[in-house]
Amino acid sequence: MKTRRVTMRQVAAEAGVAPMTVSYTYTRPERVATDTRARVLEAAERLGYAGPDPVARSLRSGSTGNLGVILGEHLGYAFEDPQAGQFLAGVSHVCVENRLGLVLIPSTGASDDAHRVREAAVDGFVVWTTTEDDPVLAAVSATGRPAAIQGGPTTAGITTVAPDDRSAADAIARRMLEHAKSPLILSFPFDRGRNPGVHRGPNTDVGFPVTRARLTGFRDAIEASGLRWNETPVAVVARQSRIAGERAVQQALEETTPDVVIAMSDQLAAGARDALGTAFPVSGWDDSELAQTLGFPSIRQSLFDQGVACARVAAGIGAPTAAPEWSLSLR
To answer: Buried b / exposed e across 249-279, counting CB within 10 Å, b at 16+?
Structure first.
């Protein structure tokens, strides 16, 4: 048999105070005299009162005190991928500073993704990069709550926080091609289908905006160096991980012999090293501890800072005034 919840009025009667005094004891304790607060808490303990119903309180105030983070990945990705971890650390920093809760909302292509977004008890949304056709974007926009997306795509009602990945990709690829003639590109997935494989000079109009921008920058550099983009092998991974990078390179080796690997992340670059040897020239992205330890060049950017910027938008406390910065980290 379900036990009925003890009410605030019952606690008030037990303590001999007004219901508002009980409410203030939990929500604004500085407004209640010390001895009165103690009497209310003793009465609450006797009756088994756990405090005001958070759902009812949020309905009255119109605020939940939570930010929602929508990940287009399985939940484990938030804890397994180092750069996703850096981004979430930035979001968490804002939550801690502003006494906000953090709700992770996975979006993996299921039919109820948009419904879960609409029903989320949050005051604003932070969205991990996704594709233009992802239905959660329309769901987020329709809520009318403040929202920011890392990396894009650009969506009405959602602030985009993204560095100029095309220029960064062009810059690092030009450096890597100074003494190379047979590059292999290691790429993130093209779209939400996440199909791995090796392509020759693929169309750069792909679904994920981060992948698209970086592929376009690599193509700019390859064509500027006098090589043919339509002959350039691009090995695509299904998931961003070191082992996926190693396997993608091993598959590519069946049809090409690269003299340099240009990767979209440090994890993928490290996987290329695992497949080709510790001295093989590779480049990565994010300038993580992995790139620094293994000693390969990378694009330096702060996903922590991007997480902070997105969270500030979602919390309604500030909007970015400029695109996130990036720089070349050469070794």
So the answer is: beebbeebebebbbbbbbbbbbbbbbbbeee
Whether residues 169 and 263 share a domain: the answer is yes
Model pLDDT for residues 18-49, shown as the tens digit of each residue? 988 988 888 778 889 999 999 999 999 899 88
Which pLDDT score is estimated for 58? 55
Share of the chain above pLDDT 90, in %: 75
CA-to-CA dists, residue 36 to 45, 52, 53, 289, angstroms: 14, 18, 21, 54
Q: How far is CA 266 from CA 3, 80, 226, 293, in A?
A: 54, 14, 26, 11
| pTM greater than 0.90 | no
Residue 240's alpha-carbon distances to 46, 266, 309, in angstroms, are 53, 10, 23
**264 and 138, same structural domain?**
no
Instruction: Name the E strands within the chain.
Output: 66-71, 101-106, 124-127, 147-150, 159-161, 183-187, 197-200, 233-236, 260-263, 282-283, 298-300, 327-329
Report if residue 3 sits inside a domain. no
Task: With respect to residue 262, please indicate whether it lies within any of the assigned structural domains.
Answer: yes
CATH assignment of the domain containing 23: 1.10.260
CB-count exposure of residue 144 (10 Å: 0-12, 13-18, 19+): exposed
Residue 291, CA atoms < 13 Å, CB-side half-sphere: 27
> Could you tell me which of 268, 262, 212 has the C-alpha nearest to residue 239?
268
